[in-house]
Design a protein that fits this description.
Layout (H helix, E strand, L loop, with lengths): L6 H8 L6 E3 L8 H9 L4 E4 L6 H18 L5 E6 L7 H11 L3 E5 L4 H9 L3 E6 L2 H10 L3 E5 L5 E2 L5 H9 L6 E4 L5 H10 L3 E4 L1 H4 L8 H9 L5 E4 L7 E4 H6 L17 H9 L16 H25 L1
Parallel strand pairs: 1-9, 2-3, 3-4, 4-5, 5-6, 6-8, 8-9
Antiparallel strand pairs: 7-11, 10-11
The chain binds flavin mononucleotide (FMN).
Length: 320
């Protein structure tokens, strides 16, 4: 079978990070503060381009991020998330901004990444693509992306549905480049488990919604702390593709489970914006969110938990 991807890209990226962790781009949640806090603490921070209402606003935000990271002396890169779907009329203008600022990583989601690859590679940037199916992962790999984000079951936002065990194993059989596993990961032990399964990085969203540096509402953070995996509902009725939503926020907004919600496209119109402001998403890992902490605190916790897991595994390996 033909192999895609380059393991040297993984090694180069990993060397710049304190943990093999990409902080997920999250609509209305990830702002400049979260990106800067993430990348200055050794993680890949990220922001969805569409969090900025216009390309001009995005231009100034990216400028601010670059200056803040330079001032902080950050070694870790940051990423901008671009929706590659045909309904995103801003894509070309936002790609031009990536080129202007030489944004280190583009994360492409909802659609084929082909339109981005040449422009981003032109200045030495990396393109990662989200994939929720093996077919989509292979399609992105053959188009020439540098890395893949595998959205497995239990992810926040638009979720995948495949088991991470099966998904990762199948994609690893044809992709040697960096793979970030996503979906329900909220502890250092789970990061270690993902690495043992063959992932190079994890991508975590839900855990970072509750950090002090996110743009999330206080009531959203409180709901995360009170919720567990059973409180997450998967529905296609909000975005047209399966998304994981906190049941309590649906009920509060007058939706009943199984009710007939209105579907809409991925185009971020006013109605969709309003909806995401009141209807809150979380992945199955929400039970691991137990406090409001800074990004630095979370990095310390995750680092400690991951190291303790590897030490325990070492002891087990020596004993048997
Ligand atoms: C509130 C929220 C908003 C999200 N918005 C986006 C988005 O705009 N673009 C995107 O590619 N992914 C988005 N996601 C998905 C995340 O990038 C990521 O795949 C997911 O959070 C990983 O799963 P986890 O939350 O279980 O860690 C969002 C997730 C959440 C929770």
């Amino acid at each position: 079978m033909r192999k895609y991807g380059d393991p040297k890209v993984t090694a180069r990226l990993r060397a710049r990070l304190s943990l093999p962790l990409i902080v997920a781009p999250m609509f209305l949640v990830s702002g400049r503060n979260l990106v800067v806090a993430s990348s200055s603490n050794g993680l890949v921070g990220s922001i969805p381009a569409l969090n900025a209402r216009t390309t001009e606003i995005l231009d100034s935000w990216i400028g601010d991020i670059v200056v803040s990271l330079e001032t902080a002396g950050a070694t870790a890169p940051f990423a901008v998330n671009l929706i590659a779907h045909a309904s995103n009329t801003r894509l070309d203008a936002d790609v031009d901004l990536m080129v202007k600022h030489k944004v280190p990583i583009a994360i492409s989601s909802v659609g084929a990444p082909d339109r981005l690859i040449d422009s981003i590679h032109g200045y030495g940037g990396l393109v990662f693509s989200d994939a929720a199916t093996v077919r989509h992962a292979k399609r992105a790999a053959s188009a020439g992306v540098d890395g893949l984000v595998l959205l497995s079951a239990g992810a926040g936002g638009n979720t995948g549905w495949l088991s991470p065990f099966a998904f990762l194993a199948e994609v690893r059989s044809f992709f040697d480049g960096p793979i970030a596993l996503a979906g329900g990961i909220s502890s250092g032990r789970q990061i270690a488990a993902a690495e043992m399964m063959g992932a190079d990085f994890v991508l975590m969203g839900t855990t970072f919604i509750a950090t002090r540096e996110s743009d999330a509402d206080q009531a959203y953070r409180d709901m995360l702390i009170e919720s567990g995996a059973d409180d997450v509902v998967t529905t296609e009725k909000l975005t047209g593709i399966p998304a994981n939503i906190l049941r309590a926020s649906l009920e509060r907004s007058g939706f009943s489970e199984g009710g007939n919600h209105k579907g809409f496209s991925v185009n971020r119109d006013a109605e969709l914006m309003k909806m995401w402001r009141d209807i809150w998403s979380a992945g199955h890992g929400v039970g691991g969110v137990t406090r409001i902490a800074s990004v630095r605190d979370e990095v310390e916790r995750l680092t400690h938990e991951r190291a303790a897991t590897f030490r325990r595994n070492q002891l087990i390996a020596e004993a048997y």
